[in-house]
Structures are given as structure tokens and as C-alpha cells.
Design goal:
The chain is α/β, with parallel strands linked by helices. It folds into 2 domains: about 130 residues, no CATH class; about 40 residues. The chain has 5 helices and 8 strands; from the N terminus they run E-E-H-E-H-E-E-E-E-E-H-H-H. It has a 6-stranded mixed beta sheet with strand order 1-3-4-5-6-7. A two-stranded antiparallel ribbon has the order 2-8. It is elongated. It comes from hydrothermal vent metagenome. Belongs to the DUF177 domain family. InterPro entries: YceD, YceD_bac. This is Large ribosomal RNA subunit accumulation protein YceD. One of its GO terms (biological process) is ribosome biogenesis.
Length: about 190
């Protein structure tokens, strides 16, 4: 028999929480956490404004205490093409089996990653930060041309590609020019 989940909606998530206790309470915690408090993530950002939204579901799954969650945020990072700011949306999900020692890792179903419980309370902030760092793309660029310079570069590249196609087409028919010249001479003679 499944017990009902206890839902807590918080404006700001606490920094620390006793994960095993939350599993006992079968708790769902939803809330936000300020980007400015995540130092490692801030190193990859142009601005630390805004909040991260998170949903954490503490429950018992397949005989293991588990934590399933989702995180999302809109973050301002540097475009690697034009070096200007670009807003990127990140979202990720995770499934952890909460374990008390490393010997339990081999017993876990494949769907779970191990999360080693150390001490009385665990850091929600570190968990959220780790997940968002994993979601960051290796290279972030604007979807469209970044600037007037990039638009000019892309136009020049397209012109060069068209020129190359024309040269290739002429190379496929090397005597096409002679044929046109012959027809032109025939028209003048007649």
C-alpha cells in the first residue's frame, strides 16, 4: 500500500535537509533557490541574477530510499561565437538511491544513481548546483547570427559556397563553354 505524498511548497528551498527523514515523511518539496548562492555555477555565468526552480520527491522505490528531482533555470552565459550575453534555459532530472555505505552500490537497480548519505543533513544547494553544472552545454551560441559582423561573415561564406558550386558545375561539363561559343558563331554566320 502506497502512502500519500506530503507536498511542501516553499518560496526558497532550505540549504540543508535531512534526506532520510524526508523519505520517512514521503515528502515532495518544491521551491526556488537563488543563483547568486551557487559559487561554482556562477563561475560559468555572466550574471548571478535569478532563481532556480526545483522539485524534490523523497520516497521509497524498489526497496530503496530515493530522491527523484527536477531542476530548471534561465541563465545568462557568454556566447562562444560573439562573446556577448545569451540567455539559455537549462533543465535536468535525476534519480538517486540514498545509500549509507558504498557496499550498497552494487545492489542498486540501473535506473538509480547512488547518493551517499554522510552526516545528519545533506546540502540541497550542492545537489542542485551539481545537476545544473551537468546540464550546461559545452558551447553556448546564439540561435541566429550573433552580430552584424557574423551576419556579414555568413553572407560571405554563402557567396563563396555558391561560387564553388558554379565552378564545380562548369567542371562537370568542360565543353559547355565551347558549345555556347560554336552556337554564337553559327548565329553570326547565318
Amino acid at each position: 500500500m502506497q502512502t500519500q505524498l506530503s507536498v511542501m511548497q516553499l518560496n526558497i528551498l532550505p540549504e540543508l535537509l535531512n534526506f532520510p527523514r524526508q523519505v520517512e515523511l514521503n515528502r515532495v518539496i518544491e521551491g526556488t533557490y537563488p543563483v547568486s548562492k551557487l559559487a561554482r555555477l556562477n563561475e560559468a555565468l555572466l550574471s548571478n541574477n535569478g532563481d532556480i526552480t526545483a522539485k524534490l520527491v523523497f520516497t521509497d522505490s524498489v526497496g530503496f530510499a530515493s530522491l527523484k528531482g527536477e531542476v530548471s533555470a534561465k541563465l545568462l552565459v557568454q556566447c562562444q561565437r560573439c562573446l556577448e550575453a545569451v540567455e539559455t534555459e537549462l533543465s535536468g532530472s535525476f534519480k538517486f538511491a540514498l545509500i549509507s555505505n558504498e557496499d550498497e552500490i552494487g545492489l542498486l537497480p540501473e535506473e538509480f544513481e547512488p547518493y551517499l548519505i554522510e552526516g545528519e543533513e545533506q546540502s540541497i544547494a550542492e545537489l542542485i548546483e551539481d545537476e545544473l553544472l551537468l546540464c550546461l552545454p559545452m558551447v553556448t551560441v546564439h540561435e541566429n547570427d550573433c552580430s552584424a559582423y557574423m551576419a556579414k561573415q555568413n553572407k560571405a561564406i554563402k557567396a563563396e559556397m555558391e561560387k564553388a558550386k558554379k565552378v564545380q558545375k562548369e567542371a562537370e561539363h568542360p565543353f559547355a563553354g565551347l558549345k555556347a561559343l560554336k552556337e554564337n558563331l553559327n548565329d553570326k554566320v547565318n
